[in-house]
Design goal:
The chain is mostly helical and about 350 residues long. It has a single domain, classed as ABC transporter involved in vitamin B12 uptake, BtuC. Helices cover about 75% and strands about 0% of the residues. The chain contains 14 helices and 2 strands; from the N terminus they run ββαααααααααααααα. A two-stranded antiparallel ribbon has the order 1-2. A hairpin with a 5-residue loop joins β1 and β2. α4 packs across α5 and α13 packs across α14. The radius of gyration is 20 Å and the shape is globular. The mean pLDDT is about 85.
Amino acid sequence: MKAVKAIRTPGGLSLRFDPRSLVVSLLLAAVTVAAGVVLIGSGDFPISPGEVVATLLGNGTQAQEFIVQDLRLPRVLVGLLVGASLALSGAIFQSISRNPLGSPDVIGFGQGATVGALGVIVLFDGGALAVAGGAVVGGLVTGVGVYVLAWKRGVHGYRLVLVGIGIAAMLTAANHYLVTKASLVEATQATLWMTGSLDGRDWAQVWPLLGVFAALVPLILAHGRQLRMLEMGDDAAYALGVPVERTRLVLMGSGVLLIAVATAAAGPIAFVALSAPQLARRLTRSPGPNLAAASVMGAALLLIADWAATTGFGDRQLPVGVVTGVLGGCYLLWLLVTERKAGRI
């Protein structure tokens, strides 16, 4: 039995929390901050962690302030927000589908955003803003398509996953087709974008991503209890007074928008949405979506992967999507083996 604490505020409001989940979330937040500081200090002009902190507090030299504030801090903030958005979206869809494979990059939403972005690059020769808009539109249209095709007296877990996997396969084929129709310059740009990278990210990507994240996170957290009830099945959720379809629609819409804006900001970074919620659940040993722990885990994973991509291969810097793809692929194989042994697939 999990130990759950309850505190009562002077106004009579009772708040319940799991001490282990709180401690894990705080430790992951500390790891995220440390990874961010180390990543800011890494590069051709190395800066020690102490100097990074001093510069962030306004006590650095002019050169350090330019490097930290203008060049490296936006990249780290984009990585943090993208990682948290991917993980939060993954936690939502894994809970709704009641399946650890129900990740948005497995069931087609990431591929839909990629189709939208590639369509703008190849067909319209769009700039960065247009590409971001195309990714958002592609993700949202894919979300609507998956929801409609998976609907049959409600949207149920395995049907959502199976429909999503089928749509993901078709969208992947569409992505390859768009690349073959592109010119050499466009194909190079598209291939680089499809890899998923934080290179060259600046404040222009930070503010829209931060705005969407700040708007959606309170909405998602407000539905956290209902999301946990949905994991017990629709009948149990109905019996507990949860408006199932409305809750599912709100949460799916929020999850699709998160994956779409994250893809628009950094490209399709694979497997963070799949692995972060499951790793958070194993660390907290708590049932339910573990939204806070999952989001912080996603941010930490992406920043650590970006640090490994930029410093672990000598003079060659890899896109972060390559590192997450390799590590996530290994995790997916382990997850499939574990699920098969448990008799769930």
